[in-house]
Amino acid sequence: MLYQPTETKTSQEQMHAIFSQLKIQTCLLGGWAVYYLVNQNYQKTTGRTYIGSRDIDLGFHINLDWTKEQLKNSEFTTTIKVVESMGFRSVSFRLVKDFDMDTGKELTPDQSAKLPLYQIFQLYIDPIVDCIHPEIKNLLGFVPIDEPLLSRVFQEKMHKTQMLFGKNILIPEPHVMLAMKINSAPRRDKEHKLIKDIADIYALLWHSDTKLSQLKEQLFTITPKEKVRKAVEKFSDEDISKASATLGIDNQETSRVLKEIT
């Protein structure tokens, strides 16, 4: 099990709280975006709920022509202020808050300091932009994560809209989400994140609403086929075995589906 039920439940509760306070239409990325793209079909096929996530990734459009004032009043900056008002603290380019692993109860820094590490889980919010504005570090004191594929979500409308927690939320099209996962997997420095990426790639290929043949065709219009092949071929047998165990499926099935895009 990659995540404890308390972690995913608390993450969803915090996501709900964030969306409830935002007046803007938010773009959801990462593991939770995959979850909402595949869960319905995954449940029909396996009888189980798809893997949730712990971290929450949110996507934003940045216009390089914005003035510093426009950047200051942008959806990106506004969302960071809302998240900080909820008790999340900035750690480099991320925002984090501590919770009790057993109860999901929010912890203050003083409370966290009195507990053993295994009793705490840290929930991270990652605000991700499609490009880096030259004034953004001066304004915020950090440079956020950038994902150039986000420009396709915003400017080319490669997204779906889902009603989540009473709000219309943007989620990248399956092939865009797949390309993002293929981009991130080779850079993972934590095993559990790589295993989750492999599981998400499999799930997007096999359980999204887009047929596999069409998904491949769409994927290769935004990501070179050779790049996809190299990324997938770096997955070791052990990595695929762990992802398969997480998914509750046979190794050979995971490998077979992954090979469809190499």
Question: What features would you describe in this structure?
Answer:
The protein has 262 residues and is an alpha+beta fold. The protein folds into two domains: 1-172, 2-Layer Sandwich (Beta Polymerase, domain 2); 174-262, no CATH class. Helix content is 51%, strand content 17%. The protein is built from 13 helices and nine strands. Strands 1, 2, 3, 4, 5, 6 and 7 form a seven-stranded mixed β-sheet that branches. Strand 4 (94-100) and strand 5 form a beta hairpin. Helix 2 (30-46) crosses helix 9 (191-207). The longest helix has 17 residues, at 5-21. The radius of gyration is 18 Å and the shape is globular. 38% of the residues are buried.
Mean pLDDT: 94
Instruction: List unreliable stretches of 5+ residues.
Output: none
Alpha-carbon distance between the two ends: 28 Å
Number of helices: 13
- Rg calc: 18 Å
Q: What portion of residues is helical?
A: 40-55%
Order of helices and strands: HEHEHHEEEHEHEHEEHHHHHH
Instruction: Tell me the major beta sheet.
Output: 7 strands, mixed
Alpha-beta classification: alpha+beta
Shape descriptor: globular
**How much of the polypeptide forms β-strand, as a percent range?**
15-25%
- Named CATH architecture of the largest domain: 2-Layer Sandwich
In total, the number of domains comes to 2
| Name of the top-level CATH class of the largest domain | Alpha Beta
